[in-house]
Design goal:
Pfam family, one: T5orf172
Protein name: T5orf172 domain-containing protein
Number of strands: 9
Order of helices and strands: HHEHHEEHEEEEHEHEH
InterPro entries: Phage_T5_Orf172_DNA-bd
Oligomer: single chain
Shape: globular
Helix content: 25-40%
Mean pLDDT: 82
Largest sheet: 4 strands, antiparallel
C-alpha cells in the first residue's frame, strides 16, 4: 500500500483534494494514458485508488452537508471527484471523448492553463460540496511581505470556521511557525470558485509548482480578493 500524500479523513474535502491534486497527475502516468490512445478512465481510477486505500477505508461513510440523514461513501466519492475533475477541470490532463467514459491524454498543445469562465453544470451525486463554504488565504510571518507578492496558500473548507481547517492542515506538517490567515470569503459553489481563482492565478504565472504542498501562489491578498469579487459578480 502506498503512503498517502495527505492525512486521511473520511470527509468530502479529503476526497476532493486527493482526487484533484494527487489522483489526476498519477492517472496521467498510467500506461493506458501515456499510450495516447482512448481508454476507459474508471478502470484506471479503480487501480490507482487500490494502491492507497484499504477496503475498510473505502467503505467508510461521512454525512452529506445539506441533506440530513444522507451519507456518502469514501470510495464512491473518490471515484466521483476524479471522474468529475478529469471531465471538466481546467487542471485535467485528459480530453473527455463523450461516450462510455472514454478519455485520452491531452497533447502538449492542448494542455494549456486557462481561466475558468463558468462551471454551471449541476453535480448530481455530490451537490452538497458545491454549496456555500469558505475560500481562504494564509501564509507564514517569515515569508509575508507588506506590498510585494509573496507565497500564499489558497484553499477552501465547508466547515463553520476557517481557523480549524488552516491550523489542522499545518499541524504536524513540518512548519516551524503558526500560520497567519490573510483573508476569507464566504461564497456559493465553493469548489467552483476555488477552481476559478486557481485557474486565473495559474494563467497569470503565479502558481508555485515546487511548493511543499498544493495550492501555493506568489500573489497578494488584494489580487485574490479582486478575482473573487469579479467571479462573484
Amino acid at each position: 500500500m502506498k503512503t498517502l500524500p495527505i492525512e486521511f479523513e473520511p470527509t468530502a474535502s479529503f476526497c476532493y483534494k486527493f482526487a484533484r491534486y494527487h489522483m489526476l497527475p498519477e492517472l496521467a502516468l498510467e500506461p493506458e494514458a501515456t499510450s495516447g490512445e482512448p481508454f476507459k478512465l474508471n478502470l484506471v481510477i479503480n487501480r490507482v485508488i487500490a494502491r492507497y486505500f484499504s477496503e475498510q477505508e473505502l467503505n467508510l461513510s461521512y454525512p452529506a452537508r445539506d441533506a440530513e440523514g444522507k451519507m456518502h461513501q469514501v470510495g464512491s466519492a473518490l471515484r466521483f471527484f476524479a471522474s468529475h475533475r478529469a471531465k471538466i477541470g481546467p487542471e485535467s490532463p485528459f480530453v473527455w471523448l463523450g461516450q462510455s467514459g472514454m478519455y485520452r491524454l491531452k497533447s502538449d498543445v492542448e494542455f494549456t492553463q486557462e481561466a475558468v469562465a463558468d462551471e454551471d453544470e449541476a453535480i448530481e451525486e455530490q451537490v452538497d460540496i458545491e454549496h456555500r463554504g469558505w475560500l481562504y488565504a494564509f501564509s507564514f510571518p517569515a515569508i509575508k511581505k507588506t506590498v510585494d507578492p509573496f507565497p500564499i496558500k489558497i484553499g477552501f473548507t465547508g466547515a463553520a470556521d476557517v481557523e480549524t481547517r488552516v491550523f489542522g492542515q499545518c499541524k504536524g506538517s513540518g512548519f516551524f511557525e503558526k500560520p497567519e490567515i490573510l483573508g476569507r470569503w464566504q461564497v456559493t459553489r465553493v469548489t467552483q470558485i476555488e477552481s476559478a481563482v486557481h485557474a486565473v492565478l495559474k494563467a497569470r504565472g503565479r502558481w508555485i509548482e515546487d511548493a511543499p504542498g498544493c495550492e501555493w501562489f506568489t500573489t497578494t491578498v488584494s489580487e485574490v480578493q479582486s478575482i473573487v469579487e469579479f467571479i462573484e459578480t
